[in-house]
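Hey there, shall we discuss this one?
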Amino acid sequence: MNDQDRPARPRVGVVGLGAMGLGMARSLRNAGYDVGVHDLRPDVAETFARDGGTAFATAGDLAAAVDVLLSVVVNAAQVESVLFGADGAADRLREGAVFVMCSTVDPAWSAQLEGRLAEKGVLYLDAPISGGAARAAVGELTMMTSGSTAAYAVADPVLEAMSSTVYRLGERAGLGSKVKIVNQLLAGVHIAAAAEAMALGIKAGVPAEALYEVITHSAGNSWMFENRMAHVLAGDYTPLSAVDIFVKDLGLVLDSARPERFPLPLAATAHQMFLQASASGLGAEDDSAVIKIFPGVDLPKPVEG
């Protein structure tokens, strides 16, 4: 695809309409894009399209219709399926189209994916995201990106429509994923530490609401404490980011450090805490449910009515 053939506003598609992908698709639609979508749950894609946009039956059908394809799925295995599975996107994307990978993955795998797609004439952006579902829905994500100048030239307006900040970290894929790995180390450790602190305070007899109020106005506060312990106070473990997400992400953190023989004692401990929660049947609950691993803690109950 040369510059003369490329539309002034790139045609855009989103694969994966979970909490993040759905918000991103909506923010793109609000920015004036005619958004194509695909999800393994056809009803979710069709519901989105009723308010504007087009639902596609397969990732390949969607890929053939767009200039920028965003993949917002859980892990590398699902990205592989989107691209190279049955009715996959890799062989249907036009030459010069851009595949934007927004998952948390092994940086080495992401770097290899750039080369695999280049063989098909497809550009690639390594573009993990942060900010949560609420920020995704209003176009205020943080994106940690790396890739070629040519890929940015096509995808930049799409990235800007979804994000408050787009960090351009380098000209080759992998750097975006490396920064996301560091972010997930901190996020996972902060959630685990917040849960441990909240559980200790409650066990010691401090009213949960008072503890939350004091800590969120003190030096020990963190964004994760303030955000996730609010879920604990409400007794609401509806998954916005599930326990099993941090089993995966902290596992990736540890895997990425192992070849460097780099010790990560805090990340390893947090990973074990999330593993314990998952093994206790909490894997599909909100990641704040890691607080439930502590025995004898009388956690707040959900408000009825």
About this structure: The two ends are 56 Å apart (CA to CA).
